[in-house]
Amino acid sequence: MTARLLWLLACCALANAQTHATWSDYGGASDSAQYSSLKQIDRSNVSKLEVAWRFPTGDDGKYFFNPLVANGLIYVMAKNKSIVALDAATGKEVWTHVAEPSNKLITDRGINYWESKDHTDRRLLFASDNFLQALDARTGESILSFGNHGRVDLKVGLDRDPKSIHLVQSTTPGRVFENLLILGSATNEGYASAPGDIRAYDVKTGTLAWTFHTVPRPGEFGYDTWPPDAWKTVGGANSWGELSLDEKRGIVFVPTGSPKYNFYGANRTGANLFGDCLLALDARTGKRLWHFQMVHHDIWDYDNATGPKLLTVHHNGKTIDAVAQPGKTGFLYVFNRVTGEPLWPVEEKSVPQSDMPGEQAWATQPFPTGPPPFSRQKFTEKDLSQYIRDPEERARFRDRLQTARNEGLFTPPALRGTVEMPGNNGGANWGGAAADPASARLFVVSKDLPCILKLEPDATGKRYTSSFGFLFTSDGLSPIAPPWTSLTSYDLNEGKIRWTIPLGDAPDLKDTGSVYPKVGPVVTAGGLIFTATRDRKVRALDEETGKILWETTLPASLEGIPAVYEINGREYLVVCAAAVDSVAFKTPTKIDGAYVAFALPRR
Prior knowledge:
Layout: H1 3-19, E1 35-36, E2 50-56, E3 68-70, E4 73-78, E5 82-87, E6 93-97, E7 112-115, E8 122-128, E9 131-136, E10 151-153, E11 175-177, E12 180-183, E13 198-202, E14 208-212, E15 244-246, E16 251-255, E17 277-282, E18 288-293, E19 309-315, E20 318-326, E21 332-336, E22 346-350, E23 364-368, H2 391-403, E24 418-420, E25 433-436, E26 441-447, E27 451-457, E28 464-470, E29 485-491, E30 496-502, E31 522-524, E32 528-532, E33 537-542, E34 548-553, E35 563-567, E36 570-577, E37 594-599
Parallel strand pairs: 1-31
Antiparallel strand pairs: 2-37, 3-4, 4-5, 5-6, 7-8, 8-9, 9-10, 11-12, 12-13, 13-14, 15-16, 16-17, 17-18, 19-20, 20-21, 22-23, 24-27, 25-26, 26-29, 27-28, 29-30, 31-32, 32-33, 33-34, 35-36, 36-37
């Protein structure tokens, strides 16, 4: 190894340690790495972890919140979706802010934290019922100077009548860059959904700073990939998942989802930029720097939902700052972060065409030549699970697979049904990947969840909607052979898979992977990967091998992303154990939900 390469690696390690030593942003840091540079807990002592404190959620609600930690406080969601500040060392309640209205939608995967350069102004930013709000992070009180008496209406400014918009707020938080909060949205799934504009707001005043139209207006790049004036009626192409920031360069990376309607696109012929793209935008202005579209004219709901991962790789003799985007399709795309050039060539390949009236499926789709996929991309009768033991049930699945359209990845939805593998809730989803930014190791959770799409005419007879069902056996298992969930480790210097393991368990079964998970892994400088799954277990895996080094069972299931932080010289792991069990388990009537903190024993 050359002296220059050693110097570069040392610089990267120092920068990563400084960036990832806290947990004051969703997923740990604004680069979405889900990485901690803390290493007090490591392979040699992780088996000694014990419960340091426990805070009950105080209701029967379902939670998968990623806590934030700043200035000695840890912020969680509990008590009927209130925001609660706890002492990060003891778990004792400091204050509670009841979000209004408490019975409405809220950004319940996480919230944002901002503080001024002189540290006198500290704010929590979140949305509830399509209104953006700000709290004083020290007291929990609403900041009434923000927006209109403390609220910003997210339905305003979308070139649509706000009264016609049902949903625009995402349950995933945005990203703070300097004095801006950059937000995506979660439009509804129907034909009349809101546009998926990317917007930035001033964190002090709530004033709209810039907008990027994901369905382009006349004169904007990409307008010709839609029918004329589609921007007036077509919605979606939104970013409901996680954004990532290259703070040094001032670039925000935005993964977008499908245009609406999800499964039939006769009203939106064309490639449909900027649906299903990775967008690189100037974080200060919203100007497009580059883009790559993973799915042309999406009719499968193959959103980019996972946060783009920012890493430094050594590729073809060069050190490259890269961005890696896992997809629902099971593909992993890796680009030069500055230029948008793929590190491995991407080939446009012919795909099956639609037989639906009015539909014009795109003739080709992009297939990366590397790295290898992390998910299975087909499901035939040869792939049926060995755990379907009833002959009649096995025959029903076999017949269903044989009578549906089943031509592999990108088979268009049809009247007689289409097998979709990975399903539109499969592959990589929100929170589903973690990265070590300097070592170029990436860890991706894959949910192998096949489904069948079946189009039917709506009441007008001119449009089609899809009834789709995730396929489950009579005992709540997936009909495809396990593993049903897997964790794959990549070396992105080489573009190769290092290892793949089943992640989680089904009832009374081992090494199958859990069923229908929403898992957010966290990797640490201690050589560990922490994951929490819906089989009620939290685990520590060896980063090198995927071997389980420690696991414990909690009273409730777990979803979402853990948090790792240090207070008074002690490292903590906090998980949110307040989720509904996977479909293969029988969920109790009452969820005994809690935030549980683990640490090594005090010396």
